[in-house]
């Protein structure tokens, strides 16, 4: 009898140890990312540059098995990015939420004094550099910037130029145009570049400010024509006939944007590392280089989490100073 009791105790201890091992392994599994579908937030309407950026990353990452779980792209426009910033901020420590972080949205949060700034979130990585261009409707009144500048001098505020949101890259590009050409164009704000393009094609605005990827399809269709670019040198292909502002005599007008990814505050370090590696793998694929970067006249530009944070910390001061110079910040 005593021997039987001892055997039962030994068996109980063995099962307990095995259960303990199982629990330890379970905890180890909990540390792997991602465990469920990843919510990928876009701070603008569908059809814009940020939307395409998110959907391209999501498609390449899942198709190439860089992640075992798919992305769910969610558009949350409003408040010039403030709606999405607030939403992601309130997902603290969540390893399954990401957000496209365009430099224009970082600017907008600063200019509009939004309660949530980019530095309150977790920087994940940078994936590309983007250019800016002024475009007009191909069969519209204006064929070049010189004619627009002539007309605006004769009738102040008569020409409407559209852009996505307030206080972002489009808006800064507009304010630089006004300041350095001594003009008074009227800025029309939209929730996304897709909305701005619809307004341009509908004849509701005279021109629009777009990244190449946001307008290249309409240029190919000969519905839209680029008349000036903010890059230091002329762009190629469909943009080759559009002069730089330096060529037009305005050396001060030059602007490039950056496309990055962020997450909620206090995201686990293991999750940050997983997404860092995922983004690096995406930017190294031929599909990304050819079908996204080359096709949209962008520059492939990867930075990890730490370097992205350093970049935006430095740029935030520059954005503040630039907007203050053009009068958007007092």
TrEMBL record:
Any idea which UniProt keywords this protein has? Signal
Could you say which residues form the signal peptide? 1-24
Kindly give the PROSITE patterns that the UniProt entry links to this protein. PROKAR_LIPOPROTEIN (PS51257)
Which superkingdom is the protein from?
A: Bacteria
Question: Which CDD domains would you find in this protein's record?
Answer: PBP2_Bug_TTT (cd07012)
Tell me its family. Answer: Belongs to the UPF0065 (bug) family.
Give the protein name, as stated in the record.
Answer: Tripartite tricarboxylate transporter substrate binding protein
Query: Upper lineage ranks?
Result: Bacteria, Bacillati, Bacillota, Clostridia, Eubacteriales
């Amino acid at each position: 009898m005593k021997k039987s009791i001892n055997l039962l105790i030994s068996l109980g201890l063995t099962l307990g140890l095995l259960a303990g091992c199982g629990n330890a392994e379970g905890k180890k599994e909990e540390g792997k990312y991602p465990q469920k579908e990843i919510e990928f937030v876009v701070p603008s309407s569908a059809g814009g540059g940020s939307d395409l950026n998110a959907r391209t990353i999501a498609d390449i990452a899942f198709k190439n098995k860089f992640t075992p779980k798919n992305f769910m792209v969610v558009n949350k426009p409003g408040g010039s990015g403030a709606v999405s910033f607030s939403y992601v901020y309130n997902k603290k420590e969540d390893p399954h939420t990401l957000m496209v972080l365009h430099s224009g949205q970082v600017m907008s949060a600063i200019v509009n004094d939004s309660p949530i700034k980019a530095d309150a979130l977790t920087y994940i990585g940078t994936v590309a550099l983007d250019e800016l261009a002024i475009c007009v409707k191909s069969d519209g009144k204006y064929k070049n910037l010189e004619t627009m500048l002539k007309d605006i001098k004769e009738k102040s505020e008569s020409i409407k130029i559209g852009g996505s949101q307030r206080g972002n890259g489009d808006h800064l590009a507009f304010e630089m145009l006004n300041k350095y050409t001594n003009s008074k164009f009227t800025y029309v704000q939209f929730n996304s570049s897709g909305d701005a393009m619809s307004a341009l094609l509908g004849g509701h605005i005279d021109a629009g400010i777009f990244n190449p990827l946001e307008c290249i399809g309409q240029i190919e269709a000969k519905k839209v024509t680029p008349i000036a670019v903010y890059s230091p040198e002329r762009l190629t292909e469909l943009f080759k006939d559009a002069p730089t502002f330096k060529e037009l005599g305005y050396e001060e007008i030059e602007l490039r944007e950056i496309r990055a990814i962020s997450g909620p505050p206090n995201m686990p370090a293991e999750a940050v590392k997983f997404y860092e590696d995922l983004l690096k793998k995406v930017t190294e694929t031929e599909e990304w280089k050819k079908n996204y970067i080359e096709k949209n006249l962008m520059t492939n530009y990867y930075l990890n989490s730490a370097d992205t944070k350093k970049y935006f910390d430095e740029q935030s001061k520059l954005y503040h100073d630039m907007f203050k110079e053009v009068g958007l910040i007092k």
